[in-house]
């Protein structure tokens, strides 16, 4: 599968709030680094759906977002951290 097709699958899982599909995709292979905000948004939904495997993946996403440090990454990392119950969401 091409990187472009894989990214389409990630987008579809996030846009349809299919947390199970997103978790499955994240576990199946490498994460596209340029799609961390998309992945983080999807993980927020997966956490809200109480998908067990989403917690570990969200923790990894927080680390990756903070290491990358693009515009908006810290806000999303804070939202994920709050959803994990590990801190307060910054406004």
Can you give keywords for this protein?
91 residues, mainly alpha
Task: Give a description of the structure.
The mean pLDDT is 91. The protein is mostly helical. It has helices at 3-15, 19-28, 36-48, 54-68, 73-83. The chain has one domain.
Low-confidence stretches: none
Class of secondary structure makeup: mainly alpha
Q: What is the number of helical segments per DSSP (H or I, 4+ residues)?
A: 5
General form? globular
Into which percent range does the helicity of residues fall? 55-70%
Distance between the termini: 39 Å
Give the SSE order as H and E letters: HHHHH
Q: Strand percentage, roughly?
A: under 5%
Overall mean pLDDT:
91
Count all strands and give the number. Answer: 0
What's the alpha carbon Rg, rounded to whole Å? Answer: 12 Å
Largest sheet: none
The figure for the number of domains is 1
